[in-house]
Specification:
Aldehyde Oxidoreductase, domain 4, single chain, 5-stranded mixed β-sheet, 3 domains, 7-stranded mixed β-sheet, alpha+beta
Length: 733
Amino acid sequence: MSTRRDFIKTSGALVVGFSLGDALAAQGPPSAPGGPARSLDLKQVDTWLAIHPDNTATVYIGFAELGQGASTALLQVAGEELDLDMSQLTTVPLDTTVTPNQGGTYSSASINRGSPQIRAAAAEARRALLQLASQRLGAPTDRLAVARGVITVAGQPQPSVTYGELIGGRRFDLEVSGAAPVKSPREYRLVGSSPARTDLTDKVGGRHAYTQHARLPGMLHGRVVRPRGQAAFGVTPRVVSVDEASVRGIPCRILRRGSFVGVVAEREWDAVRAARDLKVTWDIAPTLPGNAALFTRMRSEQTQDRVVLDRGDVGAALAGAPHVVSQIVRGPYQAHAALGPNCAVADVRPDSALVISPTQDIYGTRTVLAGVLGLPAERIQVRYQEGASNYGHGTQDDVTEAAAILSQLAGRPVRVQFMRSDEHGWDNYGRAHLGDVRAAADAAGRIVAYEYQGWQHNWMNVEPSAQLAGTAPAERDGSLGVSPLNLGSMYDVANLRLVNHRVNGMGYLRGAWLRSPLDLSFSFASEQAVDQLAFLTKADPWQFRQRNIKDPRWLGVLDAVARAAKWQPRPAAAARSRSRVVTGRGIAVGTHLASYGGAVAELEVDTRTGRVRITHLYGAIDAGLAVNPGNIENQIGGQLIQTASRMLKEEVLFNTSGVTSLDWNSYPILRFSEAPAVTAIVVQRLEERSTGAGEEVMAAAAAAVANAFFDATGVRLEEYPLTPARVLAALAG
């Protein structure tokens, strides 16, 4: 591999065309909604960064900071290539008039997709700055050294020139060619370290402004008025009547577009009271299956079937193997359940709009708002402001559309904050899933066949606000998911078949991506089947997986997490106790996208009450080059705690008419006192590309919990969460 220095030595008299004549002119948001925007051409260096006269730099990042630390890690990437310290780097709030369109902040994409773009732009800028310094200092570029943005001739502290003196406050007008040399990982100084996150000081000090704090001049407070819980997605609730007299004593306005009903008031408490007291009669058809019949209906539906992967002859391998197992999983709807109900502020004018939103995709939201409001997308400015972050597609866009519709109807800026029943009852839930696994091993303990059949509906593509206002419900593809496809590299299996059964989603609850979409369900079934094969062959679960994994990176996370947990090999359920409280441990691998995850769970089961307590979770992630290992450790810890909550507590309850999980009592989550100890392991791969670490250990952790339950009790589970009632029923069976 050629280094930056090698490239400079062989590049000769490279001429770079860029102008120093144009002022940078503080490229911030325009003063009016829909005003002129700065150039956001992804091929231009100026889109990505600006050098200031004081020798600092602003890096324009297109991903939202959701608490995952990406805004710090991407500054590290830029600082590494520019040879600037973290103290010299800053970024700006996400805004469609200011920051580049790097796609939405999901699928663990911030570092995976974002770092190559920022790295290339920073390297291009550094190369250009060195060429300018070469002219100023009268020395060839290969003799120049840079430290903290100060350029000198190698070995000579003087003369020197700073980036700020060379170009501070002016444009590069330079295209990102992709040819500028980037640093070798062996040269990294910032990347691979764990500096303090740039967003935490204000958060810890109580100074950080969340979306809920946003205010605009002349702003009204708004609330939506809906049925208490959503019905089937394909059945839009219809307003039969609105009794305006029911809020006659409250200073408010009732606003309506189709079946979208809302109230606005000068004072927030008046809006809350009006939304609570306004009497609306709804026509809602009771067409949902309810929790009791959910999986029976899914299995009996006429589905659109697709073979996702098919290699070898699964049927013949199953028929001829001495060890054959099956495993079912029934995974419920689960909510995003933001701790603070989502909020947005909108100022919609006749020809433009400004929207302040916690959306994870400002450009995607702008496109949708254009259709909802009937305005050109380029006349809508969407500004991201962090809310009570929740990973996945929760109610962020719904509350944004609600604020925009109410502002357009009211003719004034409107702030809408959801109530708890709105947040819980109208979420885009993580979808329910039914999975059926068959797997087989030969006499030597080698997995010879694997088949997975999965049932689920698509993601919903229309928010409740737009649907109630008249947009027809529509689905978008959300098939079996990415995780099953990883099975081909996870285990060395010659005969493999994955089948997706797509259920028509119109008769079910709203569904979208929730952190590690479908993967908890998939691994809950898949890794229990693998554990069953280990049990039948009288093998230790860790050693059985070692025998069946060839990929060194899968082996890397498996071995790393086993050693961290001080795993002692023995067959599962070999140390079962007759005590009232029994203990177990389980191991598993899994992921969501391109990274590698491994987990170990330790738990206790009270066989009299059915209560399960997860005492310790260990998680390992190999995400390639870990830009900020400290961030990944934090992400692993968060994933493990959230997985514990989803495995033990979380399930959306609904009947045939609608959702009944409308608060923290009917949708409980793990309490602080119930949280397990967590151990995070980052497997650093400096020479590999960065992939993702925001959701990649959750699948493994869910499966490890299921396997630990078997180790403790000798009983396999087919459904989660592991509520006391389910546990007692399983133990009795």
